[in-house]
Amino acid sequence: MKIINNEVDLKKIHIKDKFWSKYISLVKNEMIPYQWQVLNDEANIKIERERNDKNIPAEKSHAIENFKIAAGLKSGHHYGYVFQDSDVYKWLEAVSYSLTNEKDPELEKIADSVIDLIELAQEKDGYLDTYFTIDAPERKFKRLLESHELYCAGHFMEAAVAYYNATGKNKVLSIASKLADCICKCFGPEEGKIHGYDGHEEVEIGLAKLYVVTENKKYLEMSEYFLKQRGKDSDFLYEQLEKDINKEEIIKGMNTSEKKYFQVHKPVLDQDTAEGHAVRLVYMCTALADVAYLTKDAEMLAACKRLWTNITKKRMYVTGGIGSTVSGEAFTFDYDLPNDTMYCETCASVGLAFFAHNMLKSEPSSIYSNVLERSLYNSSISGMALDGKHFFYVNPLEVDPKASKYDPTKSHVKVTRPSWFGCACCPPNLARTLTSIGKYVYTVSNNTVYTHLYMANEAELSLNNSTILLKQETNYPWSGNIKISLKVDQTTNFTMAFRLPDWCHSYTIKLNGENVDYKISDGYAYITKDFKNSDLIEINLEMEIHEISANPHIKDDLGKVALQRGPLVYCLEESDNGDNLHLIKLTKDVKYECEYDPNLLGGIAKITCNAKKLIVSDNWNDDLYIADAKAPKYENKKITFIPYYSWANREIGEMKVWINKDI
To answer: pLDDT by residue (tens digit) across 587-620?
Structure first.
């Protein structure tokens, strides 16, 4: 059976974009080699805990060493979190995409050696997990609430598919298929199998991707089973713990988490609000959207839409970040979006991008691609420093160094990016996202080429047995001018659809210098015609500076505004504006100016304006409170905003996204 897939082959798109090429190069030349050193315990760095929790293993990574022990090449015990294997798998996936973008025999040789090691660590029946192979073979699949066995398996399947697509080498796909076969033998509705699911969604994503490559339908059916079984027996994860003779916890304290944390409080298809651990939720939705697309399951797609609406309409930050609380790294309730105690984990941001991408396969609508862009340009890339060697686990919207140091409830809010984490899921997750950024630009469906993102690239697209060469030129996100030139073998009738971003209120579209007819649907401009060789489409998206206001139900942002220009959200940083940023207020008639500064933070468009700053008068002395205070006095102050993603790349200091403004 030939699987219809409207994704563009990553080999057929070459990113030439100044903005994103910098990140792709940074990952290849800095991040991947650096992470390889970390995984081998060769990097001379301090590994930090992402929050104040002494149970987090932060002595070393030991990830590669764990595989060597499981393979029988070394002796010893497993070190690190039970899901430490996934750091290696995500690194391998990032390597795969990097090799797709640019051949590198030496890097491929290293990757081949890792695959050889993984093969040696795999057990005869296909089972693969170093923690259980080394230290707890009798507990396999018995504590799925905390074991992350299927989570790690899913990450390996994703990496295997990516490496196979990049190199054509079958070994990695054979290992992944053997692992998937093992899972299919152990889980399912049949008698004698485990009628359950993993505590952390991910295997569902991997199985669906493995199905697309192998066309083995049982992998898709297994993914669908895990999704539809989830929450049907909401006690399954907890009952497993009770049945396990060995009561020792694998992850301290996780067994006290409520059902919503694992998204098992009700069947998945009945869920309509984003609950629990944010990464798990968007991973679940990513799989749900993909399986809905592959099976044409309308009920699944409807569930995706309900969850998407709740996330993006009531539980998402202006930066595209999600996860309102450190407790459980979770969603809380509608409109609860605090700026200085939030979580906004990097993994959750890229997970939201994955969800959006898979929704676009079934339904090309700007409600998905606008969020895809928002997440990628703001809360995702803010997770990595400009040197590619320091990372944020948490992406706050407001920071005070004193609060991070002395307030235990804000210990997770870092003021500078650490070198690595004891729970190191975010750095390799970001690496695999950045190296595969090309796959998010276009989809092809129903004789239509959809352009979801704007970045300079050259792409070769297949459409109705015709080959279309498409070249996109732009200086996005600093400029909204986009040129798209076409090369076709012969005059061909098809449709080009271009996203009209939600931040753009004025635009023009021309074909060969002339006005062109187009229709607008679901946030896209559709041009249908007989396209000929050398046709040139020019799009100009007016990039004005917008003041973003939050829904009045978001208490923390009432009376405040955030600035956005193009896809980028901006912030104030102490480096430019001094301390006590909370005393700064925008005037009612404020005028903004934008200037590109090639020497600041790797080259950014900064925004400046005149504002006012509250003068703390001597009348206060040492009093905390005074009655009948005099009218406040302000001093004039010129302030500078920088793109949110670029903050914390200079000296330590305060940062704010939401700024007070006179009404």
So the answer is: 999 999 999 999 999 999 999 999 999 999 877 8
DSSP states along 285-350: HHHHHHHHHHHT-HHHHHHHHHHHHHHHHHSB-TTS-B--BTTTTB--STT---SSS---BHHHHH
- Within 10 angstroms of residue 298's Cβ, the number of other Cβ atoms is 10
Residue 84, judged by CB atoms within 10 A of its CB (0-12, 13-18, 19+), counts as buried
Q: Percentage of the chain surpassing pLDDT 90?
A: 91
Which range marks the domain in which residue 565 is found?
546-661
CB of 607 within 8 A of CB of 643? no
Q: How far apart are CA 656 and CA 574, in angstroms?
A: 9
pLDDT on residue 1: 41
Q: Are residues 587 and 537 in the same domain?
A: no
Which of 338, 339, 337, 342 is closest to 325 using CA atoms? 342
Q: Are residues 244 and 270 in the same domain?
A: yes
Same domain, 436 and 449: no
Residues 179 and 206 in one domain: yes
Catalytic residue among 65, 158, 204, 329: 329
Is residue 250 assigned to a domain?
yes
Q: What is the DSSP letter of 385?
A: -
| In a domain? residue 30 | yes
DSSP string, 502-548: TT-S-EEEEETTEE---EEETTEEEEEEEE-TT-EEEEEE---EEEE
Tokens of 308: 């998407």
- Encoding tokens for residue 174? 């054979």
Q: What is the three-class DSSP state of 584?
A: strand
425, 504, 571, 594: the catalytic one is 425
pLDDT of residue 23: 97
Model pTM score: 0.97
1 in any annotated domain: no
Q: Are 216 and 210 in contact (CB under 8 A)?
A: yes
For residue 598, the 8-state DSSP code is: T
For position 4, what pLDDT does the model report?
59
Domain total in the chain: 3
Domain edge (last residue) among 440, 459, 481: 440
Rounded to whole angstroms, how far apart are CA atoms 277 and 455?
A: 32
Q: Is residue 2 assigned to a domain?
A: no
Distance from C-alpha of 417 to C-alpha of 647, rounded to nearest angstrom: 10
The pLDDT of residue 245: 93
CA dist 529 → 110, 465, 494, 516 (Å): 48, 17, 6, 10
pLDDT 10s digits, 368-423: 999 999 999 999 999 999 999 999 999 999 999 999 999 999 999 999 999 998 88
Pair 420, 455 in one domain: no
116 and 237, same domain (yes or no): yes
CATH number of the domain enclosing 132: 1.50.10.20
Based on the fold, state whether residues 413 and 451 are members of the same structural domain: no
Report in angstroms the alpha-carbon separations of 319 from 370, 380, 521, 621.
Answer: 12, 9, 25, 39
| Cα dihedral sign, 188-193-194-195 | positive
Is 108 assigned a catalytic role?
no
Shared domain for 556 and 575, answered yes or no, is yes
> Active-site residue 425, yes or no?
yes
Residue 14's H or E segment, with its range, is strand 13-15
